[in-house]
Specification:
The structure is a single chain. The protein has 151 residues and is an alpha/beta fold. It is 43% helix and 20% strand. It contains six helices and six strands. Strands 1, 2, 3, 4, 5 and 6 form a six-stranded mixed beta sheet that branches. The two termini are 17 Å apart. The relative contact order is 0.21.
């Protein structure tokens, strides 16, 4: 069975992203996925992410957003995680901004759809815990983020 620790990659976690808005944050994390071989086409991937964004808010509250979308440009399932020092404006369930962004990279086929649901549910379970979120948002490096999400 897949677990969060199987998906979290230290190379795709950034604890001090410079993004000042949602677009910059998604762009920065998508670049990380591209550089690390998770996606093949940045433009296609972003198009699929924004198509999903247009369907409904991805800010789940408690300063966390989980932008995602199934895309043909995904060649390896993964996540990019970004932590900001300052709140970024985002459409959220609680009306607050966002400081932790978890961008999912999931393929567009049947397996991808299954994996997508599993991933969302795995992370939702972790992110339903205030202590996990607090630890994650206060992390100073990628190891701390992984520790917060996987312990």
């Amino acid at each position: 069975m897949m677990e969060v620790k199987d998906i979290v990659d230290l190379n795709t976690i950034h604890t001090n992203i410079r993004a000042t808005n949602k677009e910059e944050a998604i762009q920065e994390l998508a670049e990380t996925l591209l550089v690390n071989g998770y996606i093949t086409d940045m433009e296609d991937f972003l198009k699929d992410i924004y198509a999903r964004e247009a369907m409904g808010q991805t800010g789940i509250g408690n300063y966390i957003a989980i932008p995602h979308g199934k895309s043909d440009s995904v060649k390896k399932i993964g996540v990019a995680i970004g932590i900001t020092q300052d709140e970024i404006e985002w459409e959220t369930l609680d009306g607050k901004g966002v400081k932790g962004i978890i961008l999912f990279a999931v393929g567009n086929d049947n397996d991808g759809a299954q994996t997508h649901l599993k991933l969302l549910s795995l992370f939702a379970r972790k992110l339903g815990n205030d202590e996990v979120i607090e630890k994650m948002l206060q992390s100073e490096n990628a190891e701390d983020v992984r520790e917060a999400l996987c312990s």
